[in-house]
Specification:
The protein is mainly α and 255 residues long.
């Protein structure tokens, strides 16, 4: 089962490589990327609410769920602040920073920011991958909605940073080496999450699930929603609602 978890985590992380490939060979319109981000945000919010938090509460009760949820949001926020100050603040953004004169991705890639972007991708990917791994604990099936949302949210991150690093003169080996390594680490995080928690107390599993949910929700607000709104504007809310509803329907049909 832990090998299966690792493969699902690798699938979610592979979207980083896909995004890098698109940026390298076939740049996409920013509005299309923003639509993908809006859909992914809606899907992830649905997964957080109806699969992660609901499951955490069912397994461990309110105290473990609430404590893990707040801790996840706080840990993500503090770590994100540190990484942001080193050049990876809007690593899932594919366009221009509001009020900036140069593309944000290019600014991030200059001055040695490539490492910060990579660390930021790990910061996003670890809780997502752990959730994928934990969802398989006890022999349950993987959450298709969660895997799809993780995949959708990772594509623009690989796209944005790869485009910026290419403008900064980085080689293809450097760029794709980073994203392939992070994709592999995402699979490893899902594998380890499943293996480490296979025999854990339900309250511990609940706290870890809720912790990842809090980190994911903080990431959505910090990185995905701004990207979605930057290009889709008045339609961002409706597109997000569509993504949320699609994931909600999938979760109920799957149940």
């Amino acid at each position: 089962m832990f090998l299966e978890a690792g493969l699902w985590g690798l699938l979610g992380g592979s979207a980083l490589v896909l995004g890098a490939l698109v940026a390298w060979f076939l740049p996409l319109p920013q509005r299309l990327v923003a639509v993908v981000m809006a859909i992914g945000a809606g899907v992830l919010i649905s997964a957080v609410a109806f699969e992660l938090m609901d499951e955490a509460y069912r397994q461990g009760g309110f105290a473990a769920t609430a404590g893990g949820f707040v801790a996840g949001g706080a840990i993500y926020t503090l770590a994100n602040i540190l990484i942001s100050r080193r050049g990876a603040r809007h690593r899932k953004r594919s366009g221009h920073e509001p009020g900036a004169s140069q593309p944000q991705a290019g600014n991030e890639a200059s001055g040695g920011s490539g490492l910060a972007i990579a660390v930021g991708a790990l910061l996003d990917g670890i809780p997502e991958s752990v959730v994928i791994g934990v969802s398989l604990v006890g022999g349950g099936g993987v959450s298709v909605a969660t895997v799809a949302a993780v995949f959708l949210s990772n594509v623009p991150e690989g796209l944005s940073s790869a485009a910026g690093m290419r403008r900064a003169g980085r080689s293809a080996a450097y760029v794709f080496g980073i994203w392939i390594a992070i994709a592999l680490l995402s699979g490893l995080a899902a594998l380890l999450g499943n293996a480490a928690l296979a025999d854990a107390d339900p309250a511990v599993i609940a706290a870890v699930t809720a912790l990842a949910a809090g980190a994911i929700l903080a990431m959505i607000v910090d990185t995905m929603i701004p990207e979605a709104f930057s290009e889709t504007h008045d339609y961002a809310g409706l597109i997000t609602v569509a993504g949320f509803l699609a994931a909600f329907v999938l979760s109920k049909l799957g149940g």
